[in-house]
Amino acid sequence: MKNRPVNMGWSWLGETGRPWKIPFDFFGNAQKSCGQYLNITTATIFLGGVVSLILYITDEEHARVCEWSASAVKNGALYVIAHSVTTIGNPVQSTVCTAAVIIIASGVYGFRFALGGAVISFASAQSGALAKLIIARERPRCTGVTVAPDFSGYSFPSGHALSATVFCGFVAILGSQIFVQRLKTVILSFSFILWLGISWSRVILAAHYPSDVIGAQIIGQLFVFFAVFMFDISIRFYTRIPRGSTL
User: Fold this and answer.
1) With contact defined as beta carbons under 8 Å apart, do 196 and 37 qualify?
2) Residue 226 predicted with pLDDT over 70
3) Residue 43 half-sphere exposure toward CB, CA atoms < 13 A
4) Could you give the 3-state DSSP secondary structure of residue 168?
5) Which positions ≥6 away from 62 have C-beta within 8 Å?
6) For the chain, does the N or the C end have fewer beta carbons within 10 angstroms?
7) What residues does each domain of the chain span?
8) Is 38 or 193 the better-scoring residue by pLDDT?
9) What's the rounded Cα separation, in Å, for the pair 228 and 178?
10) Which residue positions does the secretion signal occupy (predicted)?
11) Gap between the Cα atoms of 226 and 11, Å rounded
């Protein structure tokens, strides 16, 4: 009997085990939890992008942001929740959370995967910072809305939304592999809700326009898909699996 290569568990987009299909199967019939998470988040970004594009073209973004933020201030509870959730995406908190995920990944998959996660997290953050300097878009200025100290700097893309996209994507990758099915559902559902909460709390707080959030999510999602692709290549290289073979 011929020895079959070990399935390392990273081919979650189908039972055929061909990770090379990943770039062409974003909306495919994903059979594993992480693939479903990536499909749902990508579809959510697309739908949000359509709405954001309409608001941008009709020059309604600023008016809508101020309207939504004013409504949240009147609601009180919604504004407090938005402030609490957005705090998780602040640089210190997001760095600590990302470091924790990288440490766990190191214990589960080894140093090279943890190093890859750290490099991708750093690269995504620097890409967002560079885009802010190049585009230099001013933040919304809404009358009657309290501006928090962390609302300084430029607006596009949202750093909170970008870091949340990458972080929650890594949690989905890790959680889909190390937890039993029931816990997978809980972890991935929590990641999705956290991702939405951190991202769109920035609009509720009038810190960003919707297009800032969507742009950041697109950048972050590209980094997540790149991470998936590189991890699969890494596994094939280290396990000496020929390209085009079935795991």
Assistant:
1) no
2) yes
3) 11
4) helix
5) 140, 209
6) N
7) 62-142+151-238
8) 193
9) 16
10) none
11) 14
